[in-house]
Design goal:
Strand order of the largest sheet: 2-1-3-7-6-5-4
Mean pLDDT: 80
CATH superfamily of the largest domain: CorA soluble domain-like
Distance between the termini: 63 Å
Number of domains: 2
Helix content: 55-70%
CATH architecture of the largest domain: 2-Layer Sandwich
Structural class: alpha+beta
Largest sheet: 7 strands, mixed
Number of strands: 7
CATH class of the largest domain: Alpha Beta
Radius of gyration: 35 Å
Strand content: 5-15%
CATH topology of the largest domain: Beta Polymerase, domain 2
Low-confidence stretches: 91-108
Length: 371
């Protein structure tokens, strides 16, 4: 468990590993814990929330935060808001129950290219109070560690000189963490695009024989899964944005400006998710189109082969008829005992070949198909 006290004053960000006894004079508190840690320390965390915020998490929301199969969604009470957002994970991260918060050393195995192994998600839960943010992460969550490091570095003189600002509220901090998760999807989008471009080239290459159909099927299933995940994310963020509109009016101009900045950041995260959804659907269509074009090209190639074989059969069919006629076991056949019979028959066969080939050439049966 990691606990941060965040304020815009000279103290900046202070990290501890114990639950705070009281709220700071200014700023807010971020309590970040793993899912198993949250389950083990549920009673102390509930007591701390009661002490700091005057309320506790309801049992249904506790169950949602402990459920590692829950899709992205948004819910609220009169005291706090709760958002569950699925983040990208490198395979299903399991938890060793004997060591709370520690991941197992044997990750789940998945088939397919390496980029597809990353399309596996775990939910991150956010409970947003007025001055407290509680986040529940999967074990070994890189998102929490990366943003915690970024938060601690934001208090350095160099960061302050570059205009880096600390989160102004728990809701602002939640949106920044969610935005970092969405950036992971955007990076994955570029990798998937390169993989799909490679497969499209292989599928449409007339000189190559494509056999990696299992990988293409895995890619289509992964894209469909990613589409569903992004749709849930978009619905959850849209519900959050709609709930902001129902908040009571801010009492001061500064609070009103903070509210407007919160809406802007929420719309920005929502726009990023919509970009991912649009790109995923476009890749699904591209994959389907490439497969259909591959089968169309194979069918066209088969038709060319059958046309060539048919033309060859038609050329040699009259020759087989002539040789079959003169090959019958009869004593008296025309020109069979003549010294010029062979040459007359050979000339007839050659003439038949020339006539048939000429007819096929005029009808473009033997023309090479342009590529």
């Amino acid at each position: 468990m990691r606990v941060f006290t965040i304020n815009s004053g000279s103290q900046g960000v202070i990290e501890t590993d114990a639950l705070p006894a009281e709220l700071p004079p200014h700023g807010f508190i971020w309590i970040a814990c793993a899912r198993r840690e949250f389950e083990v320390m549920l009673a102390p965390i509930q007591a701390a929330l009661q002490r700091l915020c005057g309320t506790q998490l309801v049992d249904l929301h506790v169950s949602d935060l402990l459920n590692n199969q829950l899709p992205s969604h948004y819910d609220y009470t009169s005291q706090y808001d709760m958002l569950v957002f699925r983040r990208l994970a490198a395979g299903q991260t399991e938890t060793d129950l004997s060591q709370p918060g520690e991941p197992l050393h044997q990750p789940a195995r998945r088939s397919g290219p390496p980029v597809l192994k990353r399309i596996d998600t775990s939910p991150v839960g956010f409970a947003v109070f007025d001055r407290v943010l509680l986040t529940v992460h999967p074990a070994g969550c890189s998102v929490r560690e990366a943003y915690a490091l970024k938060l601690l570095n934001a208090t350095s003189p160099e960061a302050r000189a570059n205009g880096v600002k600390l989160p102004a509220s728990p809701a602002d901090l939640m949106l920044r963490i969610v935005n970092q998760m969405v950036d992971g999807y955007l990076a994955l989008r570029r990798e998937l695009t390169r993989q799909m471009d490679h497969w499209q080239y292989e599928l449409l290459n007339p000189n190559a024989r494509f056999n990696n159909w299992s990988a293409v099927l895995d890619a289509r299933l992964a894209l469909h899964l990613l589409d569903e995940i992004c749709e849930d994310q978009r619905a959850a963020l849209q519900d959050w944005l709609d709930s902001i509109e129902t908040w009571p009016d801010a009492g001061t101009p500064g609070a009103q400006r903070e509210r407007e900045l919160l809406k802007v950041r929420s719309r920005d995260v929502l726009e990023h998710i919509e970009r991912v959804v649009h790109h995923v659907r476009r890749m699904e269509q591209s994959a389907e189109t490439a497969v259909q074009m591959h089968f169309s090209a194979q069918s066209h190639r088969t038709n060319d082969i059958m046309r060539t074989l048919t033309a060859l059969t038609a050329v040699f069919l009259p020759l087989n008829l002539v040789t079959g006629f003169f090959g019958m076991n009869f004593e008296f056949l025309p020109a069979i005992h003549s010294s010029a019979g062979f040459w007359w028959t050979f000339s007839l066969m050659l003439l038949l070949v020339i006539v048939v080939v000429s007819v096929f050439w005029r009808k473009q049966y033997l023309a090479r198909t342009s590529r």
